[in-house]
Amino acid sequence: MSELAAAKRIVVKVGSALLVGAEGTADAHWLHAFVADIARLRARGQQVLVVSSGAVALGRRRLALAKRALTMPEKQAAAAAGQSALMRAWEEAFEPHGLACAQVLLTRDDTEVRRRWLNARATVDTLLGLGVIPVINENDTVVTEEIRYGDNDRLAARVAQMIGADVLVLLSDVDGLYTADPRRDPAAAHIARVTRLTPEIEAMAGGANATADVGTGGMATKLAAARIASAAGCATVITIGHRPSPLAALEAGDQRATIIEPSTTPAAAYKAWIAGSLAPAGSLVVDAGAAAAVRKGKSLLAAGVRGVDGRFGKGDAVVIRDDAGAEIARGLVRYDAADAARICGLKSDAIEPELGYTAGPMVHADDLAVQPSSHGQPKG
Q1: Which domains does the chain have, with CATH numbers?
Q2: Cα(185)–Cα(201) distance, rounded to whole angstroms?
Q3: Which of 40, 43, 77, 225 could bridge to 153 as Cys pair (CB 3.0-4.6 Å)?
Q4: Mean pLDDT of 358-377
Q5: pTM for this model (two decimals)
Protein backbone atom coordinates (compact mmCIF):
# COMPACT_ATOMS: atom_id res chain seq x y z
CA MET A 1 0.00 0.00 0.00
CA SER A 2 1.73 3.13 -1.24
CA GLU A 3 -0.10 5.52 1.09
CA LEU A 4 1.23 3.77 4.19
CA ALA A 5 4.77 3.38 2.86
CA ALA A 6 5.04 7.05 1.85
CA ALA A 7 3.49 8.58 4.99
CA LYS A 8 5.61 10.65 7.33
CA ARG A 9 3.06 10.66 10.16
CA ILE A 10 0.64 7.81 10.78
CA VAL A 11 -2.19 7.61 13.31
CA VAL A 12 -3.43 4.09 14.12
CA LYS A 13 -6.64 3.57 16.06
CA VAL A 14 -6.88 0.34 18.06
CA GLY A 15 -10.31 -0.60 19.39
CA SER A 16 -11.22 -2.41 22.58
CA ALA A 17 -12.31 -5.52 20.68
CA LEU A 18 -8.73 -5.95 19.42
CA LEU A 19 -6.85 -5.05 22.55
CA VAL A 20 -8.97 -6.74 25.24
CA GLY A 21 -9.20 -10.53 25.22
CA ALA A 22 -12.12 -12.75 26.14
CA GLU A 23 -11.08 -12.80 29.82
CA GLY A 24 -11.22 -9.01 30.06
CA THR A 25 -7.44 -8.61 30.17
CA ALA A 26 -5.06 -7.12 27.58
CA ASP A 27 -4.27 -9.51 24.73
CA ALA A 28 -0.47 -9.57 25.14
CA HIS A 29 0.11 -11.81 22.09
CA TRP A 30 -1.71 -9.45 19.71
CA LEU A 31 -0.16 -6.37 21.33
CA HIS A 32 3.43 -7.60 20.97
CA ALA A 33 2.90 -8.47 17.29
CA PHE A 34 1.29 -5.11 16.62
CA VAL A 35 4.07 -3.20 18.39
CA ALA A 36 6.62 -5.07 16.23
CA ASP A 37 4.69 -3.61 13.29
CA ILE A 38 5.09 -0.11 14.73
CA ALA A 39 8.79 -0.67 15.46
CA ARG A 40 9.30 -1.56 11.80
CA LEU A 41 7.73 1.75 10.71
CA ARG A 42 9.77 3.69 13.26
CA ALA A 43 12.99 2.04 12.05
CA ARG A 44 12.47 3.51 8.57
CA GLY A 45 11.91 7.01 9.97
CA GLN A 46 8.12 7.22 10.15
CA GLN A 47 6.35 8.78 13.13
CA VAL A 48 3.50 6.76 14.60
CA LEU A 49 0.77 7.71 17.07
CA VAL A 50 -1.60 5.18 18.60
CA VAL A 51 -5.16 6.04 19.61
CA SER A 52 -6.02 3.25 22.00
CA SER A 53 -9.34 2.20 23.46
CA GLY A 54 -9.52 -0.33 26.28
CA ALA A 55 -9.38 1.55 29.59
CA VAL A 56 -13.07 1.10 30.39
CA ALA A 57 -13.05 -2.56 29.30
CA LEU A 58 -9.98 -3.34 31.43
CA GLY A 59 -11.31 -1.34 34.36
CA ARG A 60 -14.66 -3.11 34.22
CA ARG A 61 -12.92 -6.41 35.01
CA ARG A 62 -10.76 -4.84 37.69
CA LEU A 63 -13.83 -3.42 39.45
CA ALA A 64 -15.90 -6.58 38.84
CA LEU A 65 -18.64 -4.63 37.06
CA ALA A 66 -21.22 -6.89 35.45
CA LYS A 67 -21.57 -7.06 31.66
CA ARG A 68 -24.33 -4.52 31.24
CA ALA A 69 -24.66 -0.92 30.18
CA LEU A 70 -22.66 1.22 32.60
CA THR A 71 -23.78 4.52 34.01
CA MET A 72 -21.58 7.54 33.35
CA PRO A 73 -20.08 7.47 36.90
CA GLU A 74 -19.38 3.73 36.49
CA LYS A 75 -17.68 4.36 33.12
CA GLN A 76 -15.54 7.06 34.69
CA ALA A 77 -14.60 4.77 37.58
CA ALA A 78 -13.79 1.92 35.19
CA ALA A 79 -11.66 4.26 33.05
CA ALA A 80 -9.74 5.42 36.13
CA ALA A 81 -9.10 1.83 37.20
CA GLY A 82 -8.28 0.57 33.71
CA GLN A 83 -6.06 3.33 32.37
CA SER A 84 -3.00 2.24 34.33
CA ALA A 85 -3.50 -1.36 33.19
CA LEU A 86 -3.82 -0.18 29.60
CA MET A 87 -0.58 1.80 29.73
CA ARG A 88 1.27 -1.02 31.48
CA ALA A 89 0.26 -3.34 28.64
CA TRP A 90 1.55 -0.89 26.03
CA GLU A 91 4.79 -0.23 27.92
CA GLU A 92 5.52 -3.95 28.27
CA ALA A 93 4.93 -4.42 24.54
CA PHE A 94 7.21 -1.51 23.52
CA GLU A 95 10.11 -2.23 25.92
CA PRO A 96 11.65 -5.18 23.98
CA HIS A 97 12.01 -2.86 20.97
CA GLY A 98 13.75 -0.13 22.96
CA LEU A 99 10.85 2.25 22.33
CA ALA A 100 9.28 4.54 24.89
CA CYS A 101 5.59 5.40 24.90
CA ALA A 102 3.72 8.20 26.67
CA GLN A 103 0.11 8.54 27.75
CA VAL A 104 -1.84 11.49 26.34
CA LEU A 105 -5.42 11.89 27.57
CA LEU A 106 -7.67 14.26 25.64
CA THR A 107 -11.20 15.63 25.81
CA ARG A 108 -13.07 17.17 22.90
CA ASP A 109 -12.12 20.66 24.08
CA ASP A 110 -8.44 19.79 23.60
CA THR A 111 -8.95 19.51 19.84
CA GLU A 112 -11.63 22.17 19.41
CA VAL A 113 -10.64 25.05 21.72
CA ARG A 114 -7.74 26.79 19.99
CA ARG A 115 -5.58 27.47 23.05
CA ARG A 116 -5.86 23.90 24.28
CA TRP A 117 -5.44 22.62 20.72
CA LEU A 118 -2.13 24.46 20.43
CA ASN A 119 -0.95 23.10 23.78
CA ALA A 120 -1.95 19.53 22.88
CA ARG A 121 -0.29 19.78 19.47
CA ALA A 122 2.91 21.16 21.01
CA THR A 123 3.04 18.29 23.52
CA VAL A 124 2.49 15.62 20.86
CA ASP A 125 5.01 17.25 18.50
CA THR A 126 7.59 17.27 21.29
CA LEU A 127 7.00 13.60 22.06
CA LEU A 128 7.38 12.68 18.41
CA GLY A 129 10.54 14.75 18.16
CA LEU A 130 11.97 12.81 21.10
CA GLY A 131 11.23 9.51 19.40
CA VAL A 132 8.40 8.61 21.80
CA ILE A 133 5.19 6.85 20.71
CA PRO A 134 2.17 8.83 22.00
CA VAL A 135 -0.62 6.53 23.18
CA ILE A 136 -3.76 8.66 23.09
CA ASN A 137 -7.13 8.00 24.65
CA GLU A 138 -10.17 10.02 25.59
CA ASN A 139 -10.01 11.20 29.20
CA ASP A 140 -13.07 9.19 30.26
CA THR A 141 -12.40 9.80 33.94
CA VAL A 142 -13.54 13.43 33.71
CA VAL A 143 -15.40 13.74 30.42
CA THR A 144 -19.18 14.29 30.39
CA GLU A 145 -21.75 13.47 27.71
CA GLU A 146 -21.73 17.10 26.58
CA ILE A 147 -17.98 17.24 25.85
CA ARG A 148 -17.08 13.68 24.90
CA TYR A 149 -16.14 12.33 21.49
CA GLY A 150 -18.22 9.24 22.05
CA ASP A 151 -15.95 6.97 20.03
CA ASN A 152 -12.22 6.77 19.38
CA ASP A 153 -12.66 6.76 15.60
CA ARG A 154 -13.64 10.42 15.80
CA LEU A 155 -10.91 11.13 18.35
CA ALA A 156 -8.34 9.52 16.04
CA ALA A 157 -9.50 11.71 13.14
CA ARG A 158 -9.20 14.85 15.27
CA VAL A 159 -5.71 13.80 16.36
CA ALA A 160 -4.74 13.20 12.73
CA GLN A 161 -6.08 16.65 11.89
CA MET A 162 -4.29 18.27 14.82
CA ILE A 163 -0.83 16.89 14.04
CA GLY A 164 -1.05 16.97 10.23
CA ALA A 165 -0.95 13.19 9.74
CA ASP A 166 -0.71 11.75 6.25
CA VAL A 167 -2.57 8.50 6.98
CA LEU A 168 -5.17 7.44 9.53
CA VAL A 169 -5.52 3.67 9.97
CA LEU A 170 -8.73 2.47 11.61
CA LEU A 171 -8.31 -1.16 12.64
CA SER A 172 -11.74 -2.77 12.56
CA ASP A 173 -13.51 -6.11 12.75
CA VAL A 174 -14.08 -6.07 8.96
CA ASP A 175 -11.63 -5.55 6.11
CA GLY A 176 -13.12 -2.29 4.90
CA LEU A 177 -16.32 -0.88 3.49
CA TYR A 178 -18.87 -3.06 1.68
CA THR A 179 -21.95 -2.17 -0.31
CA ALA A 180 -23.91 -3.67 2.61
CA ASP A 181 -23.12 -5.31 5.94
CA PRO A 182 -21.24 -8.50 4.93
CA ARG A 183 -22.29 -10.23 8.15
CA ARG A 184 -25.90 -10.02 7.03
CA ASP A 185 -25.67 -9.90 3.24
CA PRO A 186 -23.37 -12.51 1.63
CA ALA A 187 -23.73 -10.71 -1.71
CA ALA A 188 -22.18 -7.49 -0.35
CA ALA A 189 -19.25 -6.29 -2.47
CA HIS A 190 -16.00 -4.93 -1.03
CA ILE A 191 -15.03 -1.36 -1.98
CA ALA A 192 -11.25 -0.98 -2.24
CA ARG A 193 -11.00 2.78 -2.82
CA VAL A 194 -13.23 5.79 -2.26
CA THR A 195 -12.22 9.01 -4.00
CA ARG A 196 -15.00 11.10 -2.47
CA LEU A 197 -17.39 10.49 0.42
CA THR A 198 -20.86 10.90 -1.06
CA PRO A 199 -24.24 10.35 0.61
CA GLU A 200 -24.49 7.11 -1.38
CA ILE A 201 -21.19 5.85 0.05
CA GLU A 202 -22.16 6.86 3.59
CA ALA A 203 -25.51 5.07 3.24
CA MET A 204 -23.63 1.78 2.85
CA ALA A 205 -22.44 1.95 6.48
CA GLY A 206 -24.40 0.15 9.19
CA GLY A 207 -24.39 0.67 12.94
CA ALA A 208 -22.06 -0.50 15.70
CA ASN A 209 -20.84 -4.07 15.82
CA ALA A 210 -23.63 -5.78 17.68
CA THR A 211 -21.65 -9.01 18.06
CA ALA A 212 -18.89 -7.42 20.16
CA ASP A 213 -19.04 -7.03 23.92
CA VAL A 214 -16.80 -3.94 23.90
CA GLY A 215 -16.43 -0.84 21.78
CA THR A 216 -18.92 1.73 20.52
CA GLY A 217 -17.92 2.26 16.90
CA GLY A 218 -19.20 0.85 13.65
CA MET A 219 -18.69 1.59 9.96
CA ALA A 220 -20.81 4.74 10.19
CA THR A 221 -18.48 6.23 12.80
CA LYS A 222 -15.47 5.24 10.70
CA LEU A 223 -16.82 7.05 7.66
CA ALA A 224 -17.60 10.09 9.82
CA ALA A 225 -13.99 10.01 11.01
CA ALA A 226 -12.78 9.60 7.43
CA ARG A 227 -14.69 12.73 6.44
CA ILE A 228 -12.86 14.73 9.13
CA ALA A 229 -9.52 13.27 8.06
CA SER A 230 -10.14 13.81 4.35
CA ALA A 231 -10.89 17.50 4.87
CA ALA A 232 -7.62 17.74 6.82
CA GLY A 233 -5.60 16.25 3.96
CA CYS A 234 -5.25 12.81 5.53
CA ALA A 235 -6.03 9.50 3.83
CA THR A 236 -8.03 6.96 5.83
CA VAL A 237 -7.48 3.20 5.71
CA ILE A 238 -10.14 0.90 7.15
CA THR A 239 -9.03 -2.69 7.57
CA ILE A 240 -9.31 -5.72 9.80
CA GLY A 241 -7.07 -5.71 12.84
CA HIS A 242 -7.36 -9.16 14.42
CA ARG A 243 -4.49 -10.78 12.54
CA PRO A 244 -0.94 -10.21 13.88
CA SER A 245 1.02 -7.32 12.32
CA PRO A 246 -1.90 -5.91 10.29
CA LEU A 247 0.18 -2.99 8.98
CA ALA A 248 2.79 -5.29 7.47
CA ALA A 249 0.01 -7.35 5.91
CA LEU A 250 -1.43 -4.19 4.35
CA GLU A 251 1.87 -3.18 2.80
CA ALA A 252 2.48 -6.68 1.48
CA GLY A 253 -0.92 -6.75 -0.18
CA ASP A 254 -1.97 -9.71 1.95
CA GLN A 255 -4.91 -7.93 3.52
CA ARG A 256 -7.87 -6.14 1.99
CA ALA A 257 -8.75 -2.62 3.02
CA THR A 258 -10.74 0.41 1.99
CA ILE A 259 -8.71 3.54 1.27
CA ILE A 260 -10.56 6.87 1.48
CA GLU A 261 -8.58 9.53 -0.31
CA PRO A 262 -7.94 13.00 1.13
CA SER A 263 -9.58 15.99 -0.53
CA THR A 264 -6.54 18.24 0.00
CA THR A 265 -3.09 18.20 1.65
CA PRO A 266 -2.56 18.59 5.42
CA ALA A 267 -0.68 21.90 5.03
CA ALA A 268 -3.23 23.39 2.63
CA ALA A 269 -6.14 22.32 4.84
CA TYR A 270 -4.58 23.89 7.92
CA LYS A 271 -3.74 27.16 6.16
CA ALA A 272 -7.26 27.34 4.73
CA TRP A 273 -8.71 26.81 8.18
CA ILE A 274 -6.69 29.70 9.58
CA ALA A 275 -7.43 31.97 6.62
CA GLY A 276 -11.15 31.41 6.30
CA SER A 277 -12.69 29.53 9.21
CA LEU A 278 -11.61 31.55 12.24
CA ALA A 279 -12.95 34.93 13.25
CA PRO A 280 -9.96 37.15 14.13
CA ALA A 281 -9.90 38.41 17.71
CA GLY A 282 -7.43 41.24 17.10
CA SER A 283 -4.63 42.48 14.92
CA LEU A 284 -0.87 43.07 14.87
CA VAL A 285 0.75 45.92 12.98
CA VAL A 286 4.26 45.13 11.71
CA ASP A 287 7.14 47.11 10.26
CA ALA A 288 8.36 46.86 6.68
CA GLY A 289 11.00 44.20 7.42
CA ALA A 290 8.55 41.95 9.25
CA ALA A 291 5.94 42.46 6.52
CA ALA A 292 8.41 41.31 3.88
CA ALA A 293 9.29 38.23 5.97
CA VAL A 294 5.63 37.36 6.57
CA ARG A 295 4.84 37.70 2.86
CA LYS A 296 7.50 35.02 2.26
CA GLY A 297 5.78 32.74 4.79
CA LYS A 298 8.32 33.26 7.58
CA SER A 299 7.49 33.47 11.28
CA LEU A 300 6.49 36.83 12.73
CA LEU A 301 8.97 37.80 15.44
CA ALA A 302 8.12 40.17 18.28
CA ALA A 303 10.92 42.47 17.11
CA GLY A 304 8.94 43.36 14.00
CA VAL A 305 5.62 44.11 15.72
CA ARG A 306 4.80 47.79 16.16
CA GLY A 307 1.26 47.68 17.50
CA VAL A 308 -1.34 45.38 19.10
CA ASP A 309 -5.10 45.80 18.83
CA GLY A 310 -7.88 43.72 20.36
CA ARG A 311 -8.38 41.49 23.42
CA PHE A 312 -7.13 38.15 22.19
CA GLY A 313 -5.80 35.13 24.05
CA LYS A 314 -3.03 32.71 23.24
CA GLY A 315 -4.06 30.61 20.25
CA ASP A 316 -6.59 33.09 18.89
CA ALA A 317 -6.58 34.13 15.26
CA VAL A 318 -5.26 37.61 14.52
CA VAL A 319 -4.92 39.73 11.41
CA ILE A 320 -1.40 40.87 10.52
CA ARG A 321 -1.26 44.31 8.89
CA ASP A 322 1.56 46.30 7.36
CA ASP A 323 2.30 49.88 8.42
CA ALA A 324 -0.19 51.16 5.82
CA GLY A 325 -2.99 49.11 7.42
CA ALA A 326 -3.29 46.53 4.63
CA GLU A 327 -3.96 42.93 5.67
CA ILE A 328 -1.09 40.69 4.66
CA ALA A 329 -1.80 37.51 6.62
CA ARG A 330 -3.73 35.81 9.38
CA GLY A 331 -2.28 33.56 12.02
CA LEU A 332 -2.60 31.99 15.45
CA VAL A 333 -0.84 34.17 17.99
CA ARG A 334 1.29 32.57 20.72
CA TYR A 335 0.81 35.28 23.36
CA ASP A 336 -2.26 36.99 24.77
CA ALA A 337 -2.85 40.65 23.95
CA ALA A 338 -1.35 42.01 27.18
CA ASP A 339 1.88 40.04 26.84
CA ALA A 340 2.08 40.74 23.10
CA ALA A 341 1.94 44.46 23.83
CA ARG A 342 4.75 44.12 26.39
CA ILE A 343 7.14 42.42 23.96
CA CYS A 344 6.50 44.55 20.85
CA GLY A 345 9.85 45.42 19.31
CA LEU A 346 11.84 43.09 21.58
CA LYS A 347 14.43 40.69 20.21
CA SER A 348 13.77 37.01 20.88
CA ASP A 349 16.35 36.72 23.68
CA ALA A 350 14.70 39.60 25.56
CA ILE A 351 11.23 38.03 25.76
CA GLU A 352 11.83 35.64 28.67
CA PRO A 353 13.44 38.31 30.91
CA GLU A 354 10.41 40.53 30.22
CA LEU A 355 7.61 37.96 30.65
CA GLY A 356 9.24 35.20 32.67
CA TYR A 357 8.60 32.74 29.84
CA THR A 358 8.85 32.49 26.08
CA ALA A 359 6.50 30.84 23.58
CA GLY A 360 8.75 31.47 20.58
CA PRO A 361 7.79 33.83 17.75
CA MET A 362 4.67 35.98 17.94
CA VAL A 363 3.14 33.89 15.14
CA HIS A 364 4.95 30.76 13.96
CA ALA A 365 5.25 30.12 10.23
CA ASP A 366 3.32 26.86 10.66
CA ASP A 367 0.36 28.85 12.03
CA LEU A 368 0.45 31.55 9.35
CA ALA A 369 -1.81 31.95 6.29
CA VAL A 370 -0.52 34.61 3.90
CA GLN A 371 -3.08 36.53 1.87
CA PRO A 372 -2.80 35.77 -1.88
CA SER A 373 -2.52 39.48 -2.69
CA SER A 374 0.63 39.57 -0.55
CA HIS A 375 2.36 37.63 -3.32
CA GLY A 376 1.27 40.12 -5.94
CA GLN A 377 -1.78 38.08 -6.94
CA PRO A 378 -5.32 39.47 -7.04
CA LYS A 379 -7.74 38.47 -4.30
CA GLY A 380 -10.71 36.25 -5.03
Answers
A1: 2-267 (3.40.1160.10), 278-375 (2.30.130.10)
A2: 17
A3: 225
A4: 81
A5: 0.79
* Segment 322-358, tens digit of pLDDT: 999 999 999 999 999 999 999 999 999 999 999 999 9
pLDDT digits (tens, 9 = 90+) for 184-242: 888 999 999 999 999 899 888 864 343 443 334 588 899 999 999 999 999 999 999 99
